[in-house]
Design brief:
- This protein has 138 residues and is of the alpha+beta class.
- It has helices at residues 16-21, 23-53, 57-83; strands at residues 86-91, 94-102, 105-112, 120-122, 133-134.
- Strands 1-2-3-4-5 form a five-stranded antiparallel sheet.
- The radius of gyration is 18 Å and the shape is elongated.
């Protein structure tokens, strides 16, 4: 599943070092996305069960409101990522992409939640689903 936010391509791409400097914030947002996705899945299961059982209206409304709040917070995370020049590529595990300028030219840096640094990329002409490769091999 590819989740992207609309973002204008910057006139000047950040370097890998500049993107690495943003990693603590990217990491915080990624963990929040991870938590929000888990919460939304759980709330959807609860709602599905309540609807199937003809659950009480109040419980249904509360679960719907909770889900709406989680969805709003999730979208806020996507907007924050976009403001950092990044996009959410997949939800599980959370994978973030960002265009960067390397000595060999522009490429798409790729970071997955749990990785200590940004060390992977996709070639600029790669089709969706192309395997990641170490940045040093580009």
């Amino acid at each position: 599943m590819q989740i992207r936010t609309p973002a204008q391509a910057p006139d000047v791409l950040p370097t890998l070092a500049q993107l690495e400097a943003r990693l603590p914030l990217i990491r915080r947002i990624a963990f929040e996305i991870h938590d929000r996705v888990r919460s939304m899945r759980s709330l959807r299961r609860v709602l599905s069960g309540l609807r199937a059982e003809g659950g009480p209206e109040r419980a249904l409304r509360e679960a719907e409101l909770d889900l709406g709040g989680e969805q709003t917070a999730y979208l806020s995370c996507l907007i924050e990522l976009s403001g950092l020049g990044c996009a959410l590529e997949q939800e599980s595990p959370v994978m973030v992409h960002a265009r960067v300028q390397l000595p060999g030219g522009p490429t798409t840096a790729c970071w997955v939640i749990g990785e200590s640094r940004i060390a992977w990329c996709h070639p600029p002409d790669a089709s969706p689903g192309t395997a990641r490769q170490p940045i040093g091999t580009r």
